[in-house]
Amino acid sequence: MALLQIENLSVNYGGVQAVRNLSLHVEEGEVVTLIGANGAGKTTTLRAVSRLVRPREGRITFAGRDITRLPPDEAVRLGIAQSPEGRQVLARQSVEDNLELGAYTRRDPAEVRADIRRMYERFPRLGERRNQLAGTLSGGEQQMLAIARALMSRPRLLLLDEPSLGLAPLIVREIFAIIRALNEAGTTILLVEQNARLAMGQSHRTYVLDAGQLTLQGDSSQLVNDERVLHAYLGG
Length: 236
Ligand code: ATP
Known about the structure:
GO terms for molecular function: ATP binding. The chain is 37% helix and 26% strand.
């Protein structure tokens, strides 16, 4: 049984059909990439899984449970966390307050404290800046904070929306090293990324979206050499 199963998902914003009849799955332990041009429906797909948008049609199953109509905080409790596009850290709150916010569904304060300490071990720069306002962090540090905040709910499935956006190449490499380490430590990841080559290099499988529809799917190692992907998404 897949950890995440999306079947025939359609999402509309008023008259705009953002996602059309999309089916995909993510197995436990995988890193899966979603690529596609701007407006292809990638963010909308993630937001449907984290239950921030309402599907018009289709079904979303997580760990065998139908979550299609679940409220977002229930999805977090079940083990789904999202690091949103543009990070969306609370700029006027400290790093530590942002991390605590990520644990808002939890009722185990001692364990939350322990997890915050673990985040500072995994992300030493966040530890050094724990009392600093999040808005004063660099872009890369804010991205790390957004990921760490998502991890504070102890997700089984981490949804990452454009983690490399606007970051220098060296920082992007650092972020992807973190993504790989998280996966090796057991977190399943569904990744949306503009940097298709990098994302495909770091994921098991890839789905390609175009105008809300799935056009290609397969093992990342094969798709990265596919003529259609090369031309459309890899500048080949
Ligand atoms: P990007 O890389 O630009 O974020 P995307 O592949 O993530 O693109 P979505 O953000 O999911 O695409 O958008 C899919 C379509 O839905 C686009 O046509 C977009 O303009 C539209 N859309 C997205 N959010 C909204 C909204 N809140 N209201 C109306 N239309 C929206």
